[in-house]
Structures are given as C-alpha cells and as structure tokens.
UniProtKB/TrEMBL annotation:
Gene3D superfamilies: 3.30.70.260, Acetylglutamate kinase-like. One of its GO terms (cellular component) is cytosol. This is Aspartokinase. It comes from Imshaugia aleurites. Its EC number is 2.7.2.4.
Amino acid sequence: MEIEVGASKWQKGWVVQKLLKAAAEAAKSNSTAYKSIVTSICDDHVQAAVSTLRSPDLLANLTVEIERETHDLMKYLTAAHTLGEVSPRTLDIIISKGEILSCYFIAALLQDLGIDAYVIDLSSIRTVEAPSGDVNHGFYEDYAEALRPVFLESGNRVPVITGFFGPVPGGLLSHVGRGYTDLCAALVAISLGASELQILKEVEGIYSADPRKVPTARLLSTITPSEAAELTFYGSEVIHPFTMEQVIRESIPIRIRNVTNPSGSGTTILPDYINASTSTDITSPRLPTLPAFRAPKFGISNASVSRVKRPTAVTVKNRILVINVRSNKRTSSRGFLERTFAILDKWRLSVDLIASSEVNVSMAFYCHREMVRGEGEARHIVDTDLRGAVDELARLGAVELVDEMAIVSLVGQEMKNMVGISGAMLSVLGKHNINIEMISQGASEINISCVVDQRDADRAMSIIHTNLFTFSD
C-alpha cells in the first residue's frame, strides 16, 4: 500500500497566511479586521467551487459546508477577540479550518469526477491525554494506533484527510510548526502499515545543491535519514525531522516527488538497515562497554578508490549571527563553557554551530527574528533575549557579535571514509577568496560546516559543488 500526500500551493500560500492574520487581528482590542478576512476566505472558496464543479448538487452541498465552517471560524475568532488573546489551542483550531475547507473542496472535486470520496477531519481524533509539553514518541505511537480503525472503515471509498491533526498538548503549531502536514502523513502511513510514504512537494526531489543557484546540481535518487536530517537542519527544506523520525523507526521508506510530476522518480529516503545492506563500509562488532577507537589512515588502498566517492549535498543556511566569547580566565576552562551554556539556556538561545578552545568559544545562531538593527557604529541589539545573554556573557570575557553571516554545510554519509575532504573544502574556498569565520565538524563525520559572509554564501555553495562533486553521466 502506498500513501500519497500533497499540499495545495493555493491553500498553503494563501489560506494559512490569511488565517494567521485573522488570529493576530482578533487578539487586538481595537481591530475587527478579522471579520473581513473570514468573509474573503468564504467568498473565495465559494467562487472557486462555482468555477470548478459541474454538478449543481455538489456545488450546493459544498457551499453549505464552506459557509458552515467559516461561520464556525468566525465564532472562535470573536471569542478570542473578546478575551483579547489567542491561546495555542485556539490557534490550532483556527488554522485547522483552512485544512477542512480544502478537504471539502477536494472531496467534492473527486466526486464530480465520479470518485467516491469523503472527508476525514483528524483534528477531532482524540487519544490518551499527555501532560502539557510532554509530547514524545509514545504520544505519536498512540495517535497512529488510534487512526487505524478510522481508515479501516473507509472500505473502497477514497478518504480526503486533513493534514492538521490534534489535539496536541501545548498546541500543534507550537510543538511541530508548519511541517505538521508531513508528520500527519507519516502517522497515517504507520497506522496502515504502508510500504512507502510519498510526499509531494513543489520540487522534483532532493538535489545535491539548490538548483536555482547551482545549475550543475543533480537530483539524488536516494539518501540516508541522517543525511536528510543534516540537510534539513542546515538550510535545505527537505522534510520535517519529526516526520522522518516516525516512519524510519517503522522502516518505511519516504519518497519525495513533484506535485506537478507525480510519476517522476523523485528522491527516496531509505531506512538505515537498507543502506547498510548495500554499503561497502563493513565494521566489525565492538564490545559495548568499551569506547570505540578508529585506527589512523596513512594512505588510500586500491580497493578504496575503485568506486568514486563524493559528498551527497551542499547547502546554505542564511540569517546567521556569530557570537565570539574570549574568556577573562577568572574561571577554569570547564567552568567557562559550563557558564556559557547556562546563560544561553536561560535566555532561550539555541546554537546551530559551535567551535571552542580552552579560552575561546564561537557560536553560530539562526535568527528567527530581527536581532540586530542599524549600520556601522549605530548598529545595536534589538532582541531582548540576545541582549540579556550578551550582558551576562560579558562577565565571562570579551564578547564580539558578527551578523549577516551564513552556514555552508557539506553533507555525506561517505565523507567518513574520504581522507582530506575537510582540507579540500576549506582550500577551494580560500582559493576563491572566501573568508571563513568559523569551522565545525560533527562527531558523526557526515557534516562539515563553516560560517562565511552571507553575501558570499551562494558563491561558496557553487564553488564547492563545482570542485568537490564528481558525477558519472
């Protein structure tokens, strides 16, 4: 069994934005703009139905559903306006209305084509309550199990499913973010024991670089979950990490295809056991109670060069701020790092990249919002959390901020066995006069990252791809 899930660009790019705007307006005591937003959502859906459906009966039924759901939406927004705030749970309900409207529209369209389709609203599916904030694998496992009987009742009918599901403790948007549709698809695939999860995006699949900026980028036929996770974290919009975690744990491959070209091969994220069965890197078992040591490599054997090895992909993450802290040496190196991370935790700052020594630490942060404003000497911190963290870090030593930077990451499972790949990456950037602010490599050895000026980021990605990637046509 295969599950296909696609997102409408019209709904994703338009309705959700309008619903978020309506929620924001409802929270303002001096604004009633949310009412006109809801009216426009209703009118546009009805107009789309009129211009699309051939059956008068289906059109009449769909119009009733649209008016009912938007009336319900207006009630929630009015209640939020009265209270003067929109809770995470209320925001979930407001956003879910966009999913429900789309599902009724798609179901009616399928029925108009002679397909027996019906709507399943997953926002009303309830499972065992979890404490607020304690949403772990067990919660999603229970949810997938609760979905099973819902789909078994479908028989030969085609279910049209809302991508928004709930209720989730703390709010689905707060806990998962905008990738909830992918996660919902994963839970449906698990509940049905699917042989493959297909997610339809607006791209052909996952590329070795951004094809809009690197003309020589190639479509990747397969990648590993760890590679996909690294690419997602460091800038490539691959797939929501929660989605991958759920289905890969159940050994279900994920295939990413283009919504306008669903017959294309796309890119498949294969579970590790499948990749391991085809890997040439055989590692002998180690005693679990002892640390693992790797023997140094002094050369490359003929066997190791019999197959061309290369990184899998290169990606860029913009809007990076670097904080450099040089210790005043009043505390030990251990105490210096301990206090540094305690300060970051206190002020809710998450580090994307780190490089440290006994007396220095450099940390790269992704700016989800504006943190620094102004030019030259007038440049100043505007984010409250960043200001609090910098003030406390200044007690540990000299603090320097470098903004408008980008993280360039080279990712690949085979990079573990590629001698000199780090040097090659840094050398080629230096050769093309791209200055590197900081360098970091994870313990997994499948990712090498460096921070460069944001203005040089796309050029750096193109240079790395041109010089370090070898394809056999």
